[in-house]
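User: Teach me something about this protein's shape.
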Amino acid sequence: MSARDYVEKDYYAALGVPKDAKAGDIKKAYRKLAAELHPDRNPGGEERFKEVSEAYDVLSDETKRREYDEARSLFASGGSRGFPGGFDVGDIFGQGAGGGFSDVFGGLFGGRGRQAPRRGADIETAIGLAFVDALRGSTVPLRLATSGACDTCHGSGAAPGTSPKTCGICRGQGVVSRNQGSFSFAEPCKNCRGTGMVVETPCATCKGTGEQTKERTITVRIPAGVADGQRIRLAGKGSPGERGAPAGDLLVRVTVAPHPVFGRKGNHLTLTVPVTYAEATLGALVAVPTPDGPITLKVPAGTSSGRTFRVKGKGFPAKTGAGDLLVTVEVAVPTELTPEERTALEAYAALAQRDPRAHLKEVML
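Assistant: First, the predicted structure itself:
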């Protein structure tokens, strides 16, 4: 890709965000588009998926984004204002006057020499996890469809039995010099597109690109205690880099299914246990489930509905130590009574002399 091609690309439009979008908005837009365009879900969206991934790779990096914005700003101003010969600032790469433009574009296009191979794009995918697996940890196989090195040419882009040749125009430097009045400028070589190499006989499988879409299965270890919505980064498991450059990362976003009984509060496990009025009033020993099996919880006499008891170390694992199990007891009010139960309850009501609402009678409005 030439320098001009690079700065003419509108990465903000590719992600559907404004130029002043915050990092969080850029990440949110990328996640949504990546999920919609992922080859597993949308087989015809490979090119758009690559475009979105390329845009996110630049805009998610603060340094790359700043350099990209500066490059586009200079390119957009264009023309001949303040420069002899009326050259286009979009062509200023490498050794610009006074080094100013070289500093701006050097980070984007590999400095004054051959264009540096680009790191592979990050890939994001999502998995669903059962509540218990999130609590204990799990090993999950993931099937991914990503761009990888062509099996036929092994990424060179050249047909078997041949190999890329050094570009005769730039002599393998990836840039050529052009004189403009009193100035000399370097720009990416159009013949080799800045790579310094030319494929004379393209590979029939990848048409000279050196890449092809591949399906692969990797095993992901989900750590115990992972939270709903958490992302796990697997370094080097993303798209392969160009010509031996490092691969990108794989970001796995975890969705945890709710449990029919247990809940979560931070690293604590929560549980609501119903008790009878008699148990709350007189006290009782109540069987309570935990991740490690049932335990007996002592409910003291006179326990009010909604009181929470803490069972140490029975929550989610964490770096600072396991959370606790928070057990909240609620008095279960029966909706139906037998004649005997109603008679006994009415007898109790007649004997009870305490008014639980006595303190409300003193309230003045």
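Now, about its shape. Residues 78-112 have pLDDT under 50 and may be disordered. The two ends are 77 Å apart (CA to CA). If you'd like, I can walk through any region in more detail.
User: That's plenty for now, thanks!
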